[in-house]
Structure formats: structure tokens, C-alpha cells
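seq:
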Amino acid sequence: MSSGPPRTGVGEAPARIRTYHARRGRLRPAHHAALSTLLVEWSLDASGDPIDPMRVFGREADLVLEIGCGMGDSTRVQALREPERDVIAVDVHTRGIATLLRGIEHDGISNVRVVMGDAVRFVEERLRPASLAGARIYFPDPWPKARHAKRRLVQPAFVAMLFDRLRPGAFIHCATDSPSYAEQMREGFSAHSGLSVHPALPNNVFRPVTKYERRARRLGHPVEDVWVTRTLSP
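struct:
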């Protein structure tokens, strides 16, 4: 696969750079059942008109976006701990979305909606300006090779777009086991005049430890959290 953007015809926009690895996971009958019965009830399309959170969740509440929810372990735990918040969890991988759907059904969670698709497109098309109280980006694909670094999610264009969707005072919480990515995150967020990068997590912020993180720590990977807030001024 070429590392550069595909050529396009005259007048065509360049293809979007994919920020995630394509993964295949075996779907069991339970996964197929969850997708066929629960996806319609609990999911949103990745592309389309901007959403109205009041219509989606049936209430007014702080809205948090979770990009790359994996199997949904963190999503479920935090949704149960923070019932006053509504969460939109986005991932491209079918098995993870199916597992999360099964989990929210089992736990009776009503404050989560899932999106199976590209998070960049969802942010761009479906979120209105200043609609988010926060965003969580836990362990995004690290793209460790230098020639692939442009595929990392946290790039200036995405930071600017996400900033626009955050309301004043909103947060961005990132976690990664890639030191170079953690540094890129800090530099990228710091470069935006409307964002402040803090030296540590607030004491009241909780992030569940997932299976992925436990594996990363066993392999000796240092896990770093990056806490960012949008300035209060518009």
C-alpha cells in the first residue's frame, strides 16, 4: 500500500487518510445476534446530518464522545459511574461494537449510543459546534513507524475540528502506551491557542484499566494520560 494519498481526478477532494488499522475479529453467534437485534436501537450512523442529543437520548445532559471504544469495557464502566452524562462511543471494528452492544443491554445502560464507523467523519458531519462536554481518546492506534506517523489521529486538522465541537470548559482525555505519541499529543494540543494541556490528571478523574492496558504494562510499555481543557473564553 502506498504511504502517500491516492491520486484523484480533476476537481476531486483528496482521499481521507485512514487513522486506524483494519482488524478482523471472528464473530460468534452472540455477536451476530447483538448486531441484528441491538444495532438499530442503540446506534447512530457515522455520516449524515448533525444530531440533536435531546432527540437521541431523550434528555438534556452533558455529552461525551469516546473515540476508539474497543470492546467497550471503559465505556460501560464510566457510563454506569456517571449516569448523569450521555456517551457516544465510536469504533470501526465490528466485534468490539457487538461486544459493547451486548454489554449495555446486559447492564441496562441507557446513556450510551454506539457508532460503527470512522470517528473523524462522525465528528465532522454529525456533531454541532460546542456540543461536547468532553472527549475520550484511549489508546488510539500508535502508528509507531515514522513513515506512518501522519496516520495518527491527533493531528492539527483534527485538533482544530474537535476544538470546535467542544464547549468552553470541556475536556479531552487521552491515554497511550506510546511515548512518542504522548509527546505528539501534548505538542499538538498545546499548539492550539484555545486548549490548555495540564501536567497531571485531576484527582477526581477515573479511567478504568482495560485488558489492553494490562497487556501493555506487562510488556513494559509506559502508559501516559494527557488531560486537556478548552479555555472558558469562546
